[in-house]
Amino acid sequence: MKKAGILIALLLALTLVPGCVTTKGEGTPAQPVTTLDRIAQSGQLVVGTAGSMPPMNMTTKGGDVIGLEPDMANQMAAAMGVRAVFKTMPFAELLPALEAGKVDMVLSSMTITGKRNMKVAFVGPYFISGKTFLTTEKWAAAAKEPEEVNSPSTKLTALRGSTSQVFVEKVFPKATLLLAKDYGESVAMVLQGKADAMIADYPICLLSVIRNPDHNLISVVPPFTYEPIGIAIQKNDTLLANWLENFLGTMAGSGDLKELQEKWFKGGDWINKLP
Known about the structure:
Blueprint lengths: L1 H14 L19 H8 L1 E6 L2 E2 L3 E3 L5 E2 L1 H13 L2 E6 L5 H6 L5 E7 L2 H4 L2 E10 L1 E6 H6 L3 H4 L5 E5 L3 H9 L4 E5 L2 H9 L5 E5 H10 L5 E3 L7 E8 L3 H17 L1 H11 L9
Parallel strand pairs: 1-5, 1-6, 9-10, 9-11
Antiparallel strand pairs: 2-3, 3-4, 6-13, 7-13, 8-11, 8-12
């Protein structure tokens, strides 16, 4: 009994010494859960989008998100074996939502810029765009020189938090800038005469002309800028970045990306689905 008591006391003492007792897996650093792991476990690819930038992304009368980018996201989800879920929000809220982990990626006609790239990573580009004017024929004929546009009497509208806002502030700093939460609001300002022109990506300006045939709208071509559009993901997410690079490469090489561009830029049946 005495020997048994000594043995028990010794075992108890050993349990109090740090590092003497290990459990299964102890000493091996836990592997962090990657975005792809989380997507696979949840069965959902959560995509952040403005849902208001046709034909890249838009919301139908029934509330569905459609466009070139949603089609891309659905193909990505299918390749992952999950389903795509779209979270729509004002454009300016997309990157904060990504950084907060509320979405897995942002796929919303977002230009790759140095400032944005300091906070998040980008994969792409998968599309090249550029800034231009949406305005009336009357205003375009009257304002012919840049210095005429760069005046406090000129009212320009742009999407809040976009590169269009940056473009106006840099190129036309004296003009009156009216910021909008989405392109619908911005176009309405031009139609109602509250703004002289909207600054936006060329596809959006062109579509606005098509959708408003009775308002004598025009879009200035060629675009003023070169803007690569990419997929935004959280910084240091190397596995997801690699997956997306391979996916985009396959889309481009197979012709799938070109087919989607032709579907949304040349076909117009989807216009009737919009509010």
